[in-house]
């Protein structure tokens, strides 16, 4: 009971409003506080709003192009042809100069591979000289055979002419003797008729018979002589017909011997010196050969630029730089001979990307020492097809030359900035790029 009365007394003694509310109502006649903004605050707020909007617009609509920069040089479409000696030796002659145009098979240089001995000196030279002496002897023998055959042919023709004349003369004698035989037979017949009538003696008849027999024997002698001349004429004719075959047979034997010697001489000469010929028509560049200098299979003597070949850019880069390089991508090329600050960039298109690594020899031939920081990372080749075969310098077309060094930016892809920002997030979620 006493507790309830105490609580009622406390409620009667407590104020209806809080002291802070009563104090606030007492100062109300002063009015409300109004903060007036400064001009600088408005300006900074506008600038901040503009910057935020600009950043949002840049992130939302701006684009960024990813590029890969590679180094390389210009080469003909079919590649440069490096001319090297087939084996070690000494150059005795260089037949070309820098910039000279040559045709396929033209002699470029002569390489001596002569071996020397203490007793004979140039051994292969002595062998070649001996073989040439044998060849000269065979050629002289061939000439003698030709002269001999020609002389024999002339002699046969003269004999044939004499034989024909003798046969004609013998034929005249034969005809006359045949007439004598006929006359002697007629005379013998008359003497026999007269003897039957005892008008002539037996001795006269025998004389007529002997005369007829002598004339017949003389006719047979002329017949044998004519047969002998006919046989001799036949022998001459046969010999005349066989002479070309005998001549060709002997000359062919000599020619075979000469050909065999020519082959031996060629082999000996090949073992002595080698003529280095142009494998293809083109222009000589990077000439390093000189008479008296050493040469070998690992030492380029010169380089041939194939005739009527288009130039292309061969770029080289490490695997980290060409991972996303694909054929058909655009390339912006900078030629060191024509600084891009003055002459601009030149376009090209990626034609191919090598599937295997490139050796250091090709890099050295392209004039590139290294394309990686460590020098041990694998290097690949990227071939770029040029949009133009010349550069524009001071309003004129300047033709591009093989071997010119260059660098190129290959356009990998162009994406909006927000896509690049969100790319790591999408890579983690596995949804790919936006």
Automatic annotation (TrEMBL):
It is found in: Membrane. It is a single-pass membrane protein. It comes from Paracoccus liaowanqingii. GO terms for biological process: protein secretion. This is HlyD family efflux transporter periplasmic adaptor subunit. PROSITE patterns: HLYD_FAMILY. Keywords: Coiled coil, Membrane, Plasmid, Transmembrane, Transmembrane helix, Transport. GO terms for cellular component: membrane.
